[in-house]
Design brief:
- The complex is a heterodimer.
- Chain A is mainly beta.
- Chain A contains no helices and 11 strands.
- In chain A, 0% of the residues lie in helices and 59% in strands.
- Chain A is globular, with a radius of gyration of 13 Å.
- The radius of gyration of chain B is 13 Å and the shape is globular.
- Classes of the chains: A mainly beta, B mainly beta.
- At the A-B interface, strand 5, strand 9 and strand 10 of A face strand 5, strand 9 and strand 10 of B.
């Protein structure tokens, strides 16, 4: 069966450190993968998209990697700040269904 | 000011009552989506629409209905057949089904009295 797994429900780190979030998937062949940020009580906001032929993509303090052999994406936030505290969702392009499927998310807390 | 709006922010439903959640976008997007989110969980797709007058069931369509009479609007009705409707409902749009990024509204929280 198809499955998307994001690492531990919660991740706590100290300000200034690098946060690394994981998204693993099984029985998907996504053409691309996306990461979204969601704050409590609000809708998700798009952050980054990485395609199957891209190994890495960066945007300011954010970096995403995509390994189609391992079926895994890593999402890094460098020099983390308390304002980075939120839930981060990965979403796969489910080409067979013509839509995206979301993981359950990882809640990141950055402590000052 | 372009974007996607949802109303109301909070909605209360009585037993046996149908309620309708509004979703409007002025982004000129063809595709629109409805998701349900339960506490601590990800988004589950209820319905999606690729074009006006066409929509498809998602993973959890039972107890819900939609319409797409206008490009800008994609209302969701939570019917009395949905026995556990308490959740956070999110509407999203994208340029089309092949256009990757989805833009989300602020959400509607539905509570049962």
């Amino acid at each position: 069966s198809q499955k998307i797994e994001q690492n531990s429900e919660a991740l706590n780190i100290q300000e200034g450190k690098t946060a690394t979030l994981t998204c693993n998937y099984t029985n998907y062949s996504p053409a691309y993968l996306q990461w979204y940020r969601q704050d409590p009580g609000r809708g998700p906001v798009f952050l980054l998209l990485i395609r199957e032929n891209e190994k890495e993509k960066r945007k300011e303090r954010l970096k995403v990697t995509f390994d189609t052999t391992l079926k895994q994406s890593l999402f890094h936030i460098t020099a983390s700040q308390p304002a980075d505290s939120a839930t981060y969702l990965c979403a796969l392009d489910d080409t067979n269904a013509g839509k995206s499927t979301f993981g359950d998310g990882t809640t990141l807390t950055v402590k000052p | 000011d372009g974007g996607i709006t949802q109303s109301p922010k909070y909605l209360f439903r009585k037993e046996g009552q149908n309620v309708t959640l509004s979703c409007e976008q002025n982004l000129n997007h063809d595709a629109m989506y409805w998701y349900r989110q339960d506490p601590g969980q990800g988004l589950r797709l209820i319905y999606y629409s690729q074009i006006v007058n066409d929509f498809q069931k998602g993973d959890i369509a039972e107890g819900y209905s939609v319409s797409r009479e206008k490009k800008e609007s994609f209302p969701l009705t939570v019917t009395s057949a949905q026995k556990n409707p308490t959740a956070f409902y999110l509407c999203a749009s994208s340029r089309d089904l092949d256009q990757e990024t989805q833009y989300f509204g602020p959400g509607t929280r539905l509570l049962v009295l």
